Prior knowledge:
Chain A contains 14 helices and four strands. By secondary structure, chain A is mainly α. In chain A, helix 11 packs antiparallel against helix 13. The longest helix of chain A has 37 residues, at 127-163. The relative contact order of chain A is 0.19. By secondary structure, chain B is an alpha+beta fold. Chain B folds into two domains: 16-208, D-Maltodextrin-Binding Protein, domain 2, CATH 3.40.190; 260-476, Dipeptide-binding Protein, Domain 3 (Dipeptide-binding Protein, domain 3, Roll), CATH 3.10.105. In chain B, helix 9 runs antiparallel to helix 11. Chain C is mainly alpha-helical. Chain C has a domain at 92-265: MetI-like fold. The radius of gyration of chain C is 24 Å and the shape is globular. Chains in contact: A-B, A-C, B-C. At the A-B interface, helix 7 of A face helix 8, helix 10, helix 12 and strand 15 of B.
Amino acid sequence: MAIDPATPDTGTGAIRTASGDSVVAAEPGGGAPAAGIGPYRLARRRLRRNKVALAFGALFAIIVILCFCAPLYADHIAHTGPNDNHVTEKVTVGGKEKDVVSVSGLPIGPTWQGRFLLGADQNGRDLAVRLLYGGRNSLEVGFIATFITMILATIVGLAAGYYRGVVDGVLARILDLIWAYPVVLLGIALGTSLALGGLSIGPIEVSGNSLFVPAVIIGVVYIPYVAKPIRGQVLGLREKEFVDAARVQGASSLRIMAREILPNVASTLIVFLPLMIANAILLEAALSYLGAGIQPPNPSWGTMISDGIRLIPSAIHLTFVPGAMLVLAVLGINVFGDGVRDALDPRARVKIKEKETDKVSDDPVEFAVEH
Amino acid sequence: MGTAPDYLDPQLAYTTQAVEAHWISYTGLLTYRHEEGEPGTQLIPGLADALPRISDDGKTYEFTLRRGLRYSDGTAVRASDYPYSIERMIRIPWGGRSFVTNYVVGAADFDAGRARSVSGITADDATGRITIRLREAYGAFSNVLAFPALAFVPRGTAIRNLSNDPPPGVGAYILTDVVPNRSFTLRKNPEFASFRIPDIPTGNLDTIRVNIVSNTNSEAQQVLNNQADIFDSGDTLPPALLPQIESQARDRFARKPVPSTFYFFLNTTKPPFNNEKARIAVNMAMDRDALSRIASGFLETDCFFIPRGIVGHPTSECPYGDRPDLAGAQRMLRDAGLEGAPVTVWGQERSPRKEYIDYYTDLLNKIGFRATERIIADTVYFPTIGNARTDPQTGFADWLQDFPNPSDFYLLMDGRSIQPTNNQNFSKVNDPFIQRELRRLNAVPATELDSVADEWAALDEYTARRAYVAVYGAEAVPKFFSNKLNFDSVFHPLYFNDWSTLSLR
Amino acid sequence: MARFVIRRVISMVLVLFAISVLTFLIFQAIPNGDPAVRLAGRTATPEQIELIRQSWGFDDPLWQQYLTTMGKILSGDVISYTQQLSVMSQIKQALPATLSLSIGAGIIWLFFGIVFGLFSAIKAGKFTDRALTVLALIGVSTPVFLLGAVALYFLAFKVQIFPNGGYVPLTQDPIDWLYHMLLPWMVLSVLFIGVYSRVLRSNVLDTMSEDYVRTARAKGISEKRVMVRHVLRNSMIPIISLWSLDFAAVLGGGAILTESVFNLHGVGQYAADSIQQLDVPPVLVVVMLGASAVVVLSALTDVLFAFLDPRIRLTG
């Protein structure tokens, strides 16, 4: 069933559906695989046939590679760093000298040459360089946040689903708490607070302007959206024969969780992965727009857009360039993620002939009352 | 208006957005001439019949109330309303009340709850005489008396925030129909015209409706398209609309510098800026023109701490030149052995202040420091950098005059104002020469300021030579009207657009 | 049923308690966030700050400060730090804009989400489906503040067919209200339409492969009837429960970005402004309102489904 990207505006997002629905994707490992082909191989084969998804996946990959090559571009083509100001300098475009930033503060638009390829911002910084560095920051936040979400959500989901009882009760309440808190509000409250005070988790000290601050916030905020469906799935799995068999053989709880249950929720995690990356990037942009994301002078797509919006009518390139890049990257990973889901859950695609033998999901009746 | 006034209660208000409405609705004993530029900083009698009679020791101020004054609700103004108004201002409490409580006899006791009235203010309803006694001579006290927060309100006005239903006052306009954070209206006060107070206009327009739209973009567009009439000068004009405004509305748009100082403070008690060479290097390298562009032209560049339009502004050349000298600065740092010294630069979030800091951090890196940036929320910025535990090395600072007197600016250079919390002397300047001069100059009454103008200027040149701060200029604000209004209205240096001089075309 | 209601109420109280404590602590943790210093102003003396601290109770123990604030919130006479205005009356003022935004947009996104989702499912695999899928994903991938800003640029600045943000009360001028709300509605809806059409599409496809649908088809019931009677009805349940949550979130001030881009002065914008000013009381109130909207609406949805579908048990 659909786990569609959270909406960074309301913050609730439809990811919540997933939290209600106990099983996200069919479990290739749990059910009897069709015709003796491994479920993941089957999925890979289906994905390979989905050219659109692959193309968009490639688009995302290209953007990622470009952004991580930002220093190369900065050093060899633009010859300036992402935070270097060139306010009162001049640049020659088509034989004419032009102010990088005009006397009344208007930055130059795209020059389509090495220096200021896509224009400058109000501080006379090279927009193309900032775009790449900003992308790197946005992507890093997205990846780190997703990593945090996935790890913690898996642990929480496994523990809650497997132990049930008090553990489940406590964890479920904590998840409910994060879940009922308006996401963007929680994000900016934490962001504002942590940007001022920094963050210290045990021995790890993170200063307020570190990239990890927004990453941790976003990572934590999205935990319930992944943990809840995992928990639902684990609840079902722990009653299965192979789990009983392992238990009878004297395997410890940890071992059962790691060896027997985890592989069976892996497909759900795989389905979530690209979508969570997309959501994390979007939420980072939203937080940066509200001044609680990546800290200046470092760029991110979100901060660049929010700085650019001030100048929209006269210098639309400041908004359009990072905006387009953000949309392309998120769209790329979303379409690819959609393809991954289709590949793992063939029920959503009519044309595919192979049939899953049984639906492993618990009766769909339960979901409405879950949360 | 793009920013809501902090309070519409005259005795709570502090921000520009509020006082620009208050100074034409609430008049005190003294007020300012309704004129542009330096003449606008000149004190004139308001509800008092003349400038104060100040005793030789500078401690006693005597006034006589004009006769026949009435509030906007028709009740007569009595001299005894004045002590009540001051007490209300202290009790409520107004953010700037320390200007009064630090100087007026008994005001501090009243503020602390140790006295039931301010003993230093006496009033006689029969003669209309009002006497104010000070603990020590305080030259700028006449400026303090001209604050709208020290205006008359009727005795018995509730001592709580009346922003939603502002109390009656004496002034050309009445504040009514307040919808908090949305709108309010100024209606012409019919009573006021009959008093004929010299030099205070009685207003032309019958009603002025102020709408608060927190989107300055649409505010500017509405004025550009003549759907709204005044772009509030306290708001930042969206730089994006500038090209259009400058071409389509050239005859109804102007940048007006206001007496203010924008600077980077340089903590003189901490490395690297305890070294004068480091401070001078910053002053040498700074490209004020770049900062002006970042501010979309809304910065009038300057290198002196006392801004233009305030008595005492030096007329001499900048001690470290007008043109940036990056190479010289680099050399100076290298010679002082400060290359690679770590510096944390503090700044505010709002634009263009964040962009100033982006520029400044890059500049420090270029001349050889290892600078990193700390941008924090606007509201906690000054409490944070003013806290001894933060003890910041350098960062953004600004000062918009409380009143047009150089002593108000030098409060920030006064060694006595260094304090563990809420410090305002961010550079922690404690210079014996400055202290000695301030002791003398601060005692000169505001009404005789012109006599010491040269001495203030000499002091300010000294400060600039010592590079205690890196000043880059004064803020300019937009005067931007619709084509319905005449553009010749007064732009007051303190209260911006003088709404009482507006007129329709 | 009674048991369900009681359990839900208890869990709601718990969630609200935890959320308020969390919010309170987040703001307590801010260094130099002392509200007394901010209230006192830039030039205040230490004595004045101390006075404010005492009169506002900022030097009380933390738990006591929390209890005092919560007491004031529950009795409705809590005031904000920055402007010392009644928070409740501020919210009451902001509510019409938020209500207008959420109800209008809620209807639009539900309607178009269903239409596009159904269409996409019926044409599954065909070009229309592909095109709708990509469109939906573009909608989902575009940050609302970007979409809003670009829409304002083209539709309110370049071609001036829409106003440049702002809110006009319905009671003041219904036409002008509609005129001001149209663009925010559409911008906010785009993203939800994307989500909903995707959700509905996959639900419909799921349901169509269910046995009872196949049975119904085999019995020769017309395709239209099968779609409406069986497929649509069953696919709607998750859509409605999703809608109630999203609607609750927007209602509770969740549409911060839309509200600030279009400058609607709604509840969300009020909360965001208050966070920026570190003004705790309004933030507490809005966050609790938002959370209760989510909790209450999700409980109501559950009750509704229990009535509609006897197979669903209410097990809060």
